[in-house]
Amino acid sequence: MRKIFIIFLIIIIIAAFLGWAAKITFCSQSGNSQYKLFVIKEGESVSQISHDLKNQGLLDSVLLFKSYLWLHNSSSKILAGEHKINDSWSIRQLVNALTSGISLENETVIKILEGWNLRDIAKYLSDKSLVKEDDFYKITGQPGVNYDLDKSLDKPVDFSADYEFLKEKPKNLSLEGYLFPDTYRVYKNATAEDIIRKMLDNFDQKLNSNLLGEIDNQSKKLYDILTLASVIEKEANNLEDKKRVAGVYYNRLKIGMALQADPTVNYITEKQTDRPSYDDLQIKNLYNTYKYPGLPPGPICNPGLDSILAAIYPEKNGYFYFINTPDGHLIFAKTLAEHKANRLKYFNE
Questions:
Q1: Separation between Cα atoms, residue 260 and residue 289, nearest integer Å
Q2: Which secondary structure element, helix H or strand E, spans residue 341, and what is its range?
């Protein structure tokens, strides 16, 4: 009898598990499914959300819903707003919709990645059918263009009256560097200016008074910090390496040595390469930091906060050279001889 009881108990547990898995994974088979609008308010708890979903016929089990959120660490990822939800969705589909923003009726979620330049952002917004690339550039300006030299183009919109941090930005250059990389919720009918202002608002919050005060205490300019941070963003992947790379560049700037940063050349050529060609390095353009010492005219991408912090708080070191190895590691050197030895070791040069 005991064996029969154990077998029976195992069957019940398996059945319960299969039922739990089915509810999470598969849609309802009802042929009368329909979409309903479900509103989540800012700050609303998971408990309140789950009970409201059940009361509106959009969820069968509060316990399974909350358990799934907990197991996938998604409780804090639920987005407030007006969601369009199908009452036949599985728990997995429901959670994905509520956390990704795909169910938001009047809004959509965009993700601007660290290191994207204006070209990347314009294409991304265009691909999402939010903003045409030309409309975007009319607001931000074209990347790498000096509008004082090209009179045929209209200058980008000047937002300096609304944003103090833009007052020192050269008016003849684009907004490159100021469109803060982050995840944003925007209205589906938002204009290019609406989206750009949201990014500038975020920049204003991230670059707080303490950081701006530190830049001022160092007798540096925010625009120069952003310019260097944008190069650092393209060269290193973690804060420690970024601070070390910043130290290298500051060492070079101090003695008037060219930065020789490959990403600045790529900004001109629009190539995605780790090693620009010899011809690329001969291009007569101020963004070519092999040919022209000092910082490039402006940022070459929109850096994340870690790269900005690295430019503000660089590592003090004696390095003047570094290489990116094929496996993604940075190797630093103090002398040209050491640098050549590193290149020989990793690139057979």
A1: 5
A2: helix 336-347
| Beta-sheet strands, E only, within the chain | 35-40, 81-86, 107-111, 183-187, 321-324, 330-333
Instruction: Give the domains, in start order, of the chain with CATH numbers.
Output: 28-105 (3.30.1490.480), 110-206 (no CATH), 229-318 (no CATH)
pLDDT tens digits along 100-149: 878 877 888 899 999 999 999 999 999 999 999 999 999 999 999 999 98
Q: CA 137, CA 144: separation in Å to the nearest integer?
A: 12
User: Dihedral sign, CA of 95, 99, 104, 109?
Assistant: negative
Residue 48, H or E segment: helix 46-55
Quote the CA–CA distance of 268 and 271 in Å, as a whole number.
8
Distance CA 67, CA 159 (A): 47
What is the C-alpha separation between 349 and 329, in angstroms, rounded?
18
Total-model pTM: 0.78
